[in-house]
Amino acid sequence: MNRPLCGLYAITPETSDTEHLLQQTQAVLAGGACVLQYRSKLADGLLRRTQAEVLQTLCRRHGVLFIVNDDLGLAEAVGADGVHVGRDDAAVTEARQRLGRAAVVGASCYDSLERAREAVRAGADYVAFGAVHPSTTKPGAPRAPLALFAAARELGVPRVAIGGIRPDNAAAVVAAGADLLAVVDGVFGAADPRAAAALLTGLYPCA
Q1: What pLDDT does 89 receive?
Q2: I want to staple 80 with a disulfide (CB 3.0 to 4.6 A). Which of 27, 75, 150, 175 is the partner?
Q3: Which of 47, 88, 41 is nearest to 184 (CA)?
Q4: What pLDDT is stored for residue 136 in this prediction?
């Protein structure tokens, strides 16, 4: 990974309406998101491939990193910039082997600094902690204390905060040391996705 990661990390919501998803994503990217993760747990394989392809094209146009959630095959098929993996530490190693050294590989570490250390040792480019606030996307997710971001500075990789982040509560998360804010509903569910994305992006002088 050759570029610094800092700012808004947008994550797509579940939807079968590809055209609406594309319109919303255009607004979010115009608002300044530096990373887009395609996350779909419910769509069939054909819809996932279609959505991933159009989003990848859009991200390339905007110069935004395109990450696929937990699907190495799909990431390979559409030429994604990388993949985000969950609890299985071995998945980081497998992702690196399959996608190559240039790919961005991120790992969910929940509320665990030790899990983050293991992920970095396995080759993760960034680590994600959360939920930092109650999450509608993952209601049962463990809560990650904000102090975890300062402690994780030792890892030397970007620290991503996820879970219930909105423009009205994000400043404290940034102040705690999060390098990126991973947001679903806080931007895609906003009345004005572009404005919400711009507010979150504006919290980072690097963005």
Answers
A1: 56
A2: 75
A3: 41
A4: 78
Q: Is 121 annotated as a binding residue?
A: no
Does 37 appear as a known binding residue?
yes
Three-state secondary-structure class, residue 128: strand
Buried b (16+ CB within 10 A) or exposed e, 10-22: bbbeebeeeeebe
> Which residue type sits at 20?
H
Residues 144, 116: Cα–Cα separation, whole Å: 13
Fold for the domain defined by 7-203: TIM Barrel (3.20.20)
Local mean pLDDT, 10-residue blocks, the chain (207 residues): 80 98 98 98 95 98 97 97 85 95 97 97 97 84 94 98 96 98 98 98 87
Q: Give the predicted TM-score (pTM) of the model.
A: 0.95
Q: Give the N- to C-terminal CA distance of the chain in Å, as an integer.
A: 17
User: Is residue 136 marked as binding?
Assistant: yes
The residue whose two tokens read 């080759």 is 123
Residue 53, sorted as left (phi over 0), alpha (psi -120 to 50) or beta, turns out to be alpha
Residues acting as catalytic residues: 39, 108, 138
**Is the Cβ–Cβ distance between 98 and 72 less than 8 Å?**
yes
For the chain, give every domain's residue range.
7-203
Two tokens, residue 177: 């040391």
Return the DSSP state at 14: P
